[in-house]
Amino acid sequence: MGSLRQSFQYGLRSFVRSPVFASIFVISLAVGIGAATSVFSLLDALVLRALPLPHPEQLVSMNGIYRNHARVPITGPMYAELERDQSVFSGICGWSGGGSRNIEIDGKMSLVPARAVTEDYCGVLEAQPLLGRLIGPGDVQGSQASHVAVISYEMWKRQFAGDPAVVGRTIRVEGKLFTIIGVTRRWFTGMRIGEEAPGITTPAGTSQEFDGGNRTLLWLNVTGRLKDGETVERARSQLESLWSHLLESTVSADIKGQRRQSFLAMGLEVDQATRGVDSNLRTKVTKPLYLLLGIVALILLVVCVNLASLTLARASHRRHEISTRMALGASSWQAVHQFVTETMFLSGVGAVLALVLSVLGSRVLMVLLTRNESVPVLLNVMPDWRVFCFAVVVALLAGLFIGLIPALQLSRQDSASAMRQGQRTLGRGTGVLGKALIVSQIAISLVLVQMAGLFLRSLEGLRSFDPGFARVGVTEVELASVPRVGDTTDAISYRRQVLEAVGNMAAVRSAAFSSVSIPAGDDGWKETASPTTSTNAADAAAATLVEVSPGFFKTLAIPFVSGRDFAWTDDAHHPRVVIIDSLLAKQLFRSESAIGKRIRFGVQPDFQDLEIVGVSQTARIADVRDADAPMIFAPTPQGNGYATTLLVRGSDSAELTRDVDAVLQSFGEEYSSSSRTLEASSERTLVYEQMTATLSTFFASVALVVAGFGLFGLMSYAVNLRTREIGVRMAMGSQRRDSAAYSAGERDDYADRRWRWTAVRACGVAGGGA
Length: 770
What we know:
This protein is of the alpha+beta class. It is built from 22 helices and 25 strands.
């Protein structure tokens, strides 16, 4: 312990004498460890951290596994059977996946994310309110639910300015009065980490949208809390034994044929939910975060190699000191111990500073990752014990790597020979190892630069290629319905009137409705399509179905290969028709014409006999990255008319958006919740490529700067250590440029050693003569 204290005190005095070296060491290591810790903090908050709930290890999620291995919620009757027959959970609850609802507060209308839950939701999660109380069994009496609501902490701060008297106030939800009974705590997001808790939570029975008795509507995500002593494996075993009977007892009599078979073949997934269920954000950003973690690991490696080079150069300057110690009886271990103690101390200081930098860095990363998310993001990125341990381990490894290299090299030297040589050359001080470190950091920096170039090229390629539809000059307006009680509006007739009114505007060339935004992402209906004449599963192809109105292809400038566009006469009174893209036509019918052919899509009865009336050019409607994503387009007049995305082709001016809003207000049925150009929408889908390209370019620049400073420092030490040698050369008539050339190592080793021996002999003769 005394030896450690002495080493520490000596190292501290040494750093006081060399403040520039100590400052460069600490700042460089803080930047490297801070960058790695920032990325790890985000990964920890999103992927590794448990839910902020009591005993999250007892939580289990349950979902159905439907066609094509898709994870789906279950129906209300399925949930009721499950709750009655299970015996491994102390309680189970159900909750809706999300969605937005019209909320009116003090006469102001807004669209707010909402969630419907069963009466045991808050009890099973053991959530505690910040104000008031949460939804409980007393809020549901049989099939009737009280019109009560719980608001999130964020909505309480944003909409009610943190008013502590908010409990008891009334608001309108879809035109109905609800009483606020409580406010959730901060960071409570339910079972999904990485998404802001819905602004409002209501009992499931208060909305027809979430009908607990509907045997065909899959809407309930189920969570259970294990009893003490129970395991996930036992829960899975018991529920699987009940599952077949549960499906048979809850299947609707209206479900027949292949759809019934698919329902009865539904599987069951029972998983540990300590970290919650996968959210959209977690699914999308985990891979980019791991990629970033690899990039910052290379940055940290460059920093460590650079600091090892500087430490090795500084150790060469201390060669005589170490040799003197060893000549006086110090062991090699003591020499190594001194260097490691010094570097570990600086690494510790750098780690502390890195933790401070990581708090800011993780927040910046979260902004870059989530700036275009449609759902608000709520993520606590403050460091926890995992982040502290990560920073400590990285600091220890970095300190050992940086300190051991020069220490081991100096401990192997012959002390008597080193004392005779003094401090003549850097080349002899660092040797092959020093040169290898220099080459390594330059090589890693160039790898990072090349990676940044590839990411930038990929991003530019995604931005510049033709997706098959017009991105410039098309505005996308998201619509929300004005709440009405007993509304009997004909949706199809209303949609047609809106398009006619918008199309008559002077600045508009065409307009259409779509059931999804463009690009659709995961919003489209994905299923398998196959010719009705085929029963072979190999003839089916995965496709995405989107409902669009007449004029959709004209608005997006998607040309037809053959056939026709939809017309308003393609309604519920006529046989169902579809338009497919050329990619799907080639997969299903190869070289044959698809016009007039009939296909089936999925297992829904209404989509088992669809006539193809048109084939459009392939366009990346679903995902601009995916060139192999077949599309099927169905006419909105043959559906329920629920297409809430209005596409307007014309000028991109703000006046156009205001004029469209004025048209919508004149009808009094809907209002614009948001609007943007398709160019901006396409750019939003590339947020992860933008972030990766931007950060990789930044980190590559940092690596080059670090390597440059390292080389500058090594050259400075080279000049400092070879001052005597260079002076001798110049005294013997060498020119300045010759000394610089020798200092840079441009002569071969044999000639350099011979010249140096001659110069030393000459100096010795001259000294003897004096």
